[in-house]
Each structure stands twice: as structure tokens, then as C-alpha cells.
Amino acid sequence: MNFEYEIDHEKGFITERFFGKVYVDELMDGLGRLFGDPAYRNHYHGLVDLSEASLLMDYRDVSKLVKFQKESPQTSTGQ
């Protein structure tokens, strides 16, 4: 999996892009990198681009991701 993101402070917008095979732990690691960036603001709006990604998850993985997002204080509150 490859992951990149761009934070646009002028627009208050974050673009995240995932490429290749994506497993839940890798997706959460990518989000952790974003959340750990000093430039990250959780109130910014955003878009996650998965158009070049193959999500390799089952229902347990989706539940794990939802739990991670709900419990993380850094989870985006934007749209």
C-alpha cells in the first residue's frame, strides 16, 4: 500500500490518497501518520481517494476501522 496526503491550509482541506492493496492495519497506520502531522487540523474538510486502491477487508476489519475512528481524538470532525 502507498499512502499520501496533502493539507491545504488556505482552503481548510485535506486530500488523502491510497494506492495498491490496502489492508485495515495499513490504512490505520496511514491515518496515524496524518494525525501525527503537526500541520493536521481535525476540523478541516477532506476527501479520501481510493480510486487506485484495492481494499482487502472483511466485516471484522471494517468494524476495527470504525472503532479506531470513533475512539481517536484526532478523527476528523469536518465533512
What distinguishing features does this structure have?
single chain, alpha+beta, three-stranded mixed beta sheet, 3 strands
Any overview of this molecule?
The structure is a single chain. By secondary structure, this protein is α+β, with helices and mostly antiparallel strands. The protein has helices spanning 24-36, 59-71, and strands at residues 2-8, 13-22, 45-55. Strands 1-2-3 form a 3-stranded mixed beta sheet, with helices on one face. Helix 1 (24-36) links the parallel strand 2 (13-22) and strand 3 (45-55). Helix 1 packs parallel to helix 2. The termini are far apart. 10% of the residues are buried. The model has no long low-confidence stretch (mean pLDDT 92).
